[in-house]
Amino acid sequence: MDNSEEQKHIQENNGFARIEPYTHPAGGWGALLSVARNLKRQDILGKGSITLLNINQPTGFDCPGCAWPEKKDAHAFNFCENGAKAVAFEATSKTVTPEYFAGHTVSWLSEQSDFFLEDLGRLTDPVRYDAATDKYVPISWDDAFKLIAQHLHVLDNPDQAAFYTSGRASNEAAFLYQLFVRSFGTNNFPDCSNMCHETTSVGLLDSIGLGKGTVTLEDFDVADAIFSFGHNPGTNHPRMLGTLREVSKRGGNIIAINPIKERGLERFQDPQAPLEMMTNGSTPISRYYFQPKIGGDYALMLGMLKHLNEWDKKALASGKPSVFDRNFIAVNTVGFDEMIAEIERTEWADIYKHSGLSPEHLEKLAKLFLESERSIFCWGMGITQHRHGTANVHMLANLLLARGQIGRPGAGLCPVRGHSNVQGDRTMGINELPSPKLLDNIDRVFGIKSPRKNGHGVVETIKAMAEGEVKVFIGLGGNFAVATPDTSYTQEALRKCNLTVHVATKLNRSHLVCGKDALILPCLGRTEIDEQLHGPQAISVEDSMSNIHLSAGRNAPISENILSEPDIVARMAEAVLPDSQIKWKWYIESYDRIRDSIADVFDEFHDFNLRVYKPGGFHLEHPANQHI
Ligand SMILES: Nc1nc2c(c(=O)[nH]1)N[C@H]1C(S)=C(S)[C@@H](COP(=O)(O)OP(=O)(O)OC[C@H]3O[C@@H](n4cnc5c(=O)[nH]c(N)nc54)[C@H](O)[C@@H]3O)O[C@H]1N2
Ligand SMILES: Nc1nc2c(c(=O)[nH]1)N[C@H]1C(S)=C(S)[C@@H](COP(=O)(O)OP(=O)(O)OC[C@H]3O[C@@H](n4cnc5c(=O)[nH]c(N)nc54)[C@H](O)[C@@H]3O)O[C@H]1N2
Ligand SMILES: [Mo]
Prior knowledge:
44% of the residues lie in helices and 13% in strands.
């Protein structure tokens, strides 16, 4: 379909792409055709190949598509269908200019589909909402920052403003942003992570002392079994399918636990493996597929532990070694006996009822775990987005701890994050519940007094805006009005604000849900050259496996009137905090300076610049993944 046909097709389907039965493997020829179509749609066929060859290379830019790590020996095409689309989407030559805004009211734009809005192309100039004409009109950068300062200065207290972050912001942008917001005086940091892997971060912090996974890509090379709980790599992390395919090819077990049969977990045809493409073959991915009830994972994992416990008793009674890693448990854990007592109290009937698995299937699943000396547990939204998501995560950790399978090569915990730097943003201090240690360190390095009161996350921010307690909303990326729960209530809440500000690459619905005053501030994307006083700058990101590496764009910016995210944050800080001792603009001359300050605040970032400029970057140390 060409562009106009596709628009027509979408219009005819009320703005939704039609879902049709799909009988082919995930990936493969279908994926490549789709990539070609998207490059064409965005008018970058010529430019596209150069852009894509740079993706996820040591000297290129980090793929904005997702947070799955890159292989160290990546060949020239280490990107996937989605990554290619995400890049095509950003590197498009289509633009939304002030002239476009002059011809279209916000009411008219609001009637268009989400796809239509983003498909308009890249934002080229800062604009301000004009209620009289119901249109966005151009504003200079200086005036935009002045307007933000005016609104923030008239608040009764800093907690009347909230500062959202979407997980694409770089470490450098996120670090400056949290420093600005804390210098201003609030911890109101709603974050896309609140809707995503929050339960992972909270649950793992309880279970292993740090809210992050414990494995690296190399662990997948030696694992006996990969357990995939509630995530769908086929559409969401396609590069992960390459990793799973390798495991499958060398005879490793892949076990999916998912109420729905996801095509990507069943079969995968790798567009980067020529032989499979020529023969139209595909590698089976999951050897075993268990389909619990939605929300049944906690009961399922409890059942696995109950089986292990029964087998353990039998083993001990007949003089065989324990099923559990007793030594590891004694040295590294607390509360094991209490957990076993709780498991013994739980009836099998309840476990079957709540998990939705038959006794035979549950026993088979527990056996597979027992037989695997090195297991990796991967998980996504099927585990985290539940009321009992944190308890689910505790249970994942409990199973591995009971078998001593954390900190051992080929074994451990692997949350599969979404946005490409959502983990890094948290590491940089984007957190509405900051630890005293973080605040003390920031205060020591910068001589400020960070607020000690906890701030608002996403849900509290929406409530506070609805009740008129938060009056200014500033978003560093994202699509708050759509991504958050209870859309109509959220949109009503945003409209009550005195000012809404969105830093963005593309137009989306949130920009059309305006406060009394509203700004859209266009920023550079990952693929673009970020030229500052000391030359082109690189930013850094942290992937799902705690690897930190640099990313630098190669394309010319889409417009001369857009700024980098760190620059926008720094200029906003200058305007809002004229008496600040922090040299905001000086940081922008060279991002190495931001990284030096990050190293001063966070011990694990020691020698940041030295280490991050090495090809592939470095791995953040983590006590739970020290191999023993
Ligand atoms: N194309 C594309 N890719 C993306 C994104 C995007 O918007 N578009 N977003 C990115 C982001 S931010 C994220 S967080 C990731 C999300 O990626 P995923 O973590 O894969 O999330 P979902 O797509 O919601 O898929 C959830 C899976 O869990 C299963 N499931 C549902 N309920 C349960 C349950 O109770 N138990 C179990 N065991 N399984 C269950 C569903 O069948 C589904 O397969 O994707 C990232 N990648
Ligand atoms: N119904 C429903 N709601 C969900 C989910 C779901 O599966 N279903 N998933 C939840 C999850 S897991 C998450 S993580 C959240 C995501 O929530 P958000 O992060 O708020 O939403 P996104 O849709 O990822 O944001 C996309 C927008 O980010 C902007 N953007 C893209 N690249 C850049 C960049 O480099 N810089 C800047 N400044 N802006 C950029 C573009 O303007 C684009 O329109 O949504 C949550 N909400
Ligand atoms: Mo997410």
